[in-house]
Automatic annotation (TrEMBL):
It is found in: Cell inner membrane. Its main location: membrane. This is Trk system potassium uptake protein. The keyword Chaperone does not apply. The keyword Thylakoid does not apply. It comes from Thiohalophilus thiocyanatoxydans.
C-alpha cells in the first residue's frame, strides 16, 4: 500500500475542492449575503488542509495499484463530504447542527437529494447555489474531473477511474487514454448542463434557478432552491417537460452518448440492450402511473395526470428525486411501485443511482436461463448481451453485488428500526439513500429533519455505499485488502 502517494493525491484533490468555495463566495458578494465570511473561511480551511497533506509528500510519485485506487476514492468521498459541511457549519443561516451539516453535504455530493433543511426558499442565495453545486460536482465525480485536468494524476489514473465509475464493467474506456476518457465524459456532462439551464430559462425559470436546477438535473441529484421542489413551477408545464427530457438523457450511459455523438448517429442508442431496457421500464411504469392517477381522479383532467405521472416516473426511475407533487401521498400501490423502480435505477456509466439497468437486465437473463435449465438440464445456454456472450466472471460479480446489496440493506433497515422508526419510514429511508434517490415514504416523504442523529449517520453511510456501489467501500473492511 502506497500510503504516502495516497496522502499526496488526497492533498491535491482537497486543494482542487477548495476552489468549489469560490463560486458561492462570488454569489454571496453579488447578493450581499451574510455568508461571505463562511465561504471565505471554508476556502481557506480546505486549501490549507490540502497543502498540509500534500507538501510533505509532494515528490512521492509511485505507480498506484488497484487497492490504492479504491482506498483513495473511499477516503476522498468521505473526507470531501466532511469538508463540504464546513460552509453549513460556519454559516449563520441556516443554523444547523454538525450532524445536519454533514448529512446535507453527504446528500449533495453523493447526488442523493435527501435534505434536513426547511425554509429553503428563504435561505441565502449563496447557500442555495452551494447545495446545487455540490450535486453537480458529485454527479460525474470530482476524481474523474481531477484525472481529466491534472496530468500528474494520470499515474495510476485507471485505478482511480475503476474505483469511481459506476456499473459492472469498469475496464472499458471510450478513448485509448484514461485522461481523454475523463475529458470526454466531462465535455458531455458540461454540454448537457448548459443546454438544460438554457431550456429551464426559456421555460420560465429565473436565470439563478435555471442554473441551479440544471446542476441537480444533469447530476440526477434532486436538490432544489425551493421547498416545493419542481412543484414551485407547477404553473409552467414547459419546465416539467424540460426536466423530463434532461433527467432521461442524464440517466443514459454517457459512453453511449459519446459514441452516438462521435459517429453522428442515433442508431447506437437503439442497438444498445441496456438503453432499450431502460426505455421499456420507464414507459411501462409511466403508463401504469398515469392511468391509475387518472382513474383515481387524483388530478383534474387527463393532461395533468399525464404530465405528473410521466414526470414522477422519470424522476424516481432515474433516481433524480425531484417532485411536483407529494407522490408519497398518492393512493394505492403507486408510491411503493415508484420506490421499487428506483432499485433498478439508471444506466451504468450515468450519473444515476440504483443497482443499474444493466445489472437488472443480466439478473433477469440469468433467472430465465435457470428456468430453461430445469427443462433442459444438459443444455449449454450462454447469457448474451447485444448478441455477444457475457463473461461468467461478470455474472458472478453481479450476483455478488446483489447479495451484498440485499445484506447491507437488511442490516441498515433493522438498525434504523432500532432507533424508533416505523417499518415504512425505515425501509424507504434506506432505499432512498442507498439508491441515491432522495425522497422516501412516511416520515421522510418531505425531508429527513425529524430523524435522530443516529439515524442520520447511518443514512450518511448508506448514501456513501450507494455512490460507491457498495464494493468500493466494503472491500476496505476485508482483511484480504490490507494483507501484503
Amino acid at each position: 500500500m502506497h500510503l504516502l502517494v495516497i496522502q499526496r493525491i488526497l492533498g491535491i484533490l482537497l486543494m482542487i475542492f477548495s476552489l468549489a468555495m469560490l463560486p458561492p463566495l462570488f454569489v454571496s458578494f453579488l447578493y450581499l449575503n451574510i455568508t461571505f465570511d463562511a465561504f471565505f473561511y471554508s476556502f481557506a480551511i480546505i486549501l490549507i488542509s490540502g497543502i498540509i497533506l500534500w507538501l510533505p509528500v509532494k515528490k512521492q510519485k509511485q505507480e498506484l495499484r488497484i487497492r490504492d485506487g479504491f482506498l483513495v476514492v473511499a477516503l476522498f468521498w468521505t473526507i470531501l463530504s466532511l469538508f463540504g459541511a464546513i460552509p453549513f457549519i460556519l454559516s449563520p443561516d441556516p443554523a444547523v447542527s454538525i450532524t445536519d451539516a454533514i448529512f446535507e453535504s453527504f446528500s449533495g455530493l453523493t447526488t442523493t437529494g435527501s435534505t434536513v433543511l426547511t425554509g429553503i426558499d428563504d435561505l441565502p442565495e449563496s447557500i442555495q447555489f452551494y447545495r446545487q453545486q455540490l450535486q453537480w460536482l458529485g454527479g460525474m465525480g470530482i476524481i474523474v474531473l481531477a484525472v481529466a485536468i491534472i496530468p500528474m494524476l494520470g499515474i495510476g489514473g485507471m485505478q482511480l477511474y475503476r474505483a469511481e465509475t459506476p456499473g459492472p464493467v469498469k475496464d472499458t474506456k471510450i478513448t485509448p487514454r484514461i485522461t481523454e476518457t475523463a475529458k470526454a465524459l466531462w465535455y458531455i456532462y458540461l454540454s448537457l448542463t448548459v443546454l438544460c439551464a438554457l431550456g429551464y430559462w426559456l421555460g420560465g425559470m429565473s436565470l439563478f434557478d435555471a442554473i441551479g436546477h440544471s446542476f441537480s438535473t444533469v447530476a440526477i441529484g434532486g436538490f432544489s432552491t425551493h421547498d416545493a421542489s419542481m412543484g414551485y413551477f407547477i404553473d409552467k408545464p414547459m419546465i416539467e417537460v424540460v426536466a423530463i427530457i434532461f433527467m432521461f438523457l442524464s440517466g443514459i450511459n454517457f459512453a453511449l452518448h459519446f459514441t452516438a455523438w462521435r459517429h453522428r448517429s442515433l442508431a447506437y442508442y437503439l442497438l444498445d440492450s441496456e438503453f432499450r431496457a431502460y426505455v421499456i421500464i420507464l414507459i411501462l411504469v409511466a403508463l401504469i402511473t398515469v392511468f391509475y392517477l387518472h382513474n383515481e381522479n387524483v388530478f383534474p383532467g387527463f393532461d395533468r395526470a399525464l404530465l405528473h405521472g410521466v414526470f414522477q416516473t422519470v424522476s424516481i426511475g432515474t433516481t433524480t428525486g425531484f417532485t411536483t407533487h407529494q407522490y408519497h401521498l398518492w393512493p394505492g400501490f403507486l408510491p411503493v411501485l415508484l420506490l421499487f423502480v428506483s432499485f433498478i435505477g439508471a444506466c451504468a456509466w450515468s450519473t444515476g443511482g440504483g443497482m443499474k439497468v444493466i445489472r437488472f437486465l443480466l439478473l433477469l437473463k440469468q433467472g430465465i436461463r435457470e428456468i430453461t435449465r430445469i427443462v433442459h438440464p444438459h443444455a449449454v445456454i450462454p447469457i448474451k448481451l447485444g448478441g455477444k456472450p457475457v463473461s461468467p466472471r461478470i455474472i458472478d460479480a453481479i450476483w455478488g453485488f446483489f447479495s451484498a446489496y440485499v445484506a447491507v440493506f437488511a442490516i441498515m433497515l433493522l438498525i434504523l428500526m432500532m432507533t424508533g422508526l416505523d417499518q415504512i419510514t425505515a425501509f424507504s429511508a434506506v432505499a432512498a439513500t442507498i439508491n441515491n434517490l432522495g425522497p422516501g415514504l412516511g416520515e421522510v416523504g418531505d425531508n429527513y429533519a425529524s430523524l435522530t442523529n443516529t439515524a442520520k449517520w447511518i443514512l450518511c453511510f448508506s448514501m456513501l455505499l450507494g455512490r460507491l456501489e457498495i464494493f468500493t467501500l466494503l472491500v476496505l473492511l476485508t482483511p484480504a485488502f490490507w494483507r501484503r
